[in-house]
Amino acid sequence: MTRYSTGEVEVFDLAEDPLEMKNLAGRPEGRERREHLSDRLAHAMLEYSDLARPRGASAA
């Protein structure tokens, strides 16, 4: 999962799509997986003091 500062999100199934040609981010059937990955990304960004904070996260 990649989330850009513009808010754009990319999610790829690297086993099925190793060249990252088919963005799965907008598919409704992957909503739970995207939310899980988004939560993990937000926690990692805060843990490593990433300056590009996820939306809704406050500075520590």
Q: What is the CA-based Rg, rounded?
A: 13 Å
Number of strands: 2
Strand-and-helix sequence, N→C? EEH
Helical region count?
1
Q: Which term fits the overall shape?
A: globular
- Mean pLDDT, as a whole number? 82
Task: Tell me about this structure.
By secondary structure, the protein is mainly alpha-helical. The protein has one domain. It is 28% helix and 7% strand. It has one helix spanning 31-47, and strands spanning 2-3, 9-10. The protein is globular, with a radius of gyration of 13 Å.
In a nutshell, what does this entry contain?
The protein has 60 residues and is mostly helical. It has one helix at residues 31-47; strands at residues 2-3, 9-10.
Write the layout of secondary structure elements.
Elements lengths: L1 E2 L5 E2 L20 H17 L13
Antiparallel strand pairs: 1-2
Which descriptors would you attach to this protein?
60 residues; 7% strand; mainly alpha; globular; 2 strands
